[in-house]
Amino acid sequence: MKRRTLLQSFSACALTGSVLVARADAFTDFQTAITRDDFVRMRKLLQQGMDPNTVDERGRPGLVKAMQLESLRVAQELIKAPGIRINDASASGETALMHACIKGHIDVVKQLLALGARINHPGWTPLHYVASSDTEHSVAIAQLLLDQHAYIDAESPNKSTPLMLAAQYGSEKMVKLLLDAGADVQLRNELNLTAVDFARRSEREFLVKLLDTAYQATRRSKASW
To answer: Where does the chain cross the membrane (predicted)?
Structure first.
């Protein structure tokens, strides 16, 4: 009786070990498929029951990592996978939509928005990300977000706004789009910097003039009797 129990125990341990090895192999294959944009391998893994929301060692869900690495074919497999959670964020708070925005993948942005990707949330937002980029489709993506009610003066953790980032990193068209859409040029972040200061820090004099003109135009005159 004791021998049978002991054998059963050994068998159970061996089975558990095999399962753990299989899971580890699947995890490695999942991450490798993302890195290599191996959509065929990813499709097989998903068909075998792999969780499309699997997180890597750095806390990045599969879809976030795929968009960050621009593994667009794998991203498509993950987006259409049953159970995918497109709003899952990495440990640093980045979503798939944020990476699609900053890298200028307008088709993916449209796809994610149609599936209910979140635009407004505390901290860095998709509008911050696209405002700091200067790709072929950056301005069009920003307009898409604004059309979907993106909060134009969203504050990052240090209270920087999309306009501030556009002033330092984006294009003149991006700055004009945000200004025309009502971005508040008077706002200051935790370092007491305005969008004008951001433009000045990057020595973009053409944007300094544009933003300073907007700043002066919106200054409130001192109250008088």
So the answer is: none
- pTM passes above 0.85: yes
What is the residue-averaged pLDDT of the chain? 91
Read off φ and ψ for residue 28, nearest 5 degrees. -65, -45
Mean pLDDT for the stretch of residues 30-49 = 97
Mean pLDDT value of segment 203-220:
91
* Confidence bin at 19 (pLDDT 50/70/90): very low
Phi, psi of 49 (to 5 degrees): 105, 10
**Domain 1-92 = CATH 3.30.70:** no
Which two structure tokens, joined as six digits, stand for 132?
Answer: 């700091």
**DSSP result, 84-151:** --TT---TTS--HHHHHHHTT-HHHHHHHHHTT-----SSS-HHHHHHT--STTHHHHHHHHHHTT--
> What fold characterizes domain 95-225?
1.25.40
